[in-house]
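[step 3/7] fold_predict: job queued, chain A
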Amino acid sequence: MSAATTAATREPVHIQAVDGFGTVTLTPVDPAADASLIHRWVSEDRARFWGMAGASPDLVREVYEDLDRRTTHHAFLARRDGVPVALFQTYECAADRVSECYEARPGDTGVHLLLAPAPGAAEPGFSGRLMGAFMAFVLADGTARRLVADPDTRNAKAIARLERSGFTLGPEVELPEIVLPEIRIPAKRARLAFLEAPGTQSR
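[step 4/7] structure written:
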């Protein structure tokens, strides 16, 4: 993916017109500019499985500053016709704690998705269309051989969304706690899910 080389510019890395939905744009997160928005999203009860409930605005900024320094982990704001609608993260599984819970393969790319609060009534097909745009971006250059998701086992909505998007459910695992000088990522009971990139199944 080209995200590592474009993160500093904050220019869109993916623009996709989705029929009947609008134009989806992915732009690397700018920790200084976007931390306040992300903090509002992760502070809601609906985002409790994201694992940042109770985090201060400063901590949220520090977390995304840490991600911004990495070449293996990336965070993007998704906009629909210019309006922020989701936070999307990708990472190399071999460089993430998930690799301690299963046998990671070359080309395994992890994905995380946090939808923004809905402004009104739920829109049928909203999350599915966003997922389609996200997967098109991740799979565009052929680097990702398999997508890996690790939602909280209690997050039935996320698990169902992954199944609708073509993921195959794997085992339940315990993601270990990570303690860094500035941040702490708590342990999580997760359900792994996998999606083979088109054309890789027979390789």
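[step 5/7] annotate
Helices lie at 3-6, 31-42, 57-69, 126-139, 156-164.
The chain has five helices and ten strands.
exit 0
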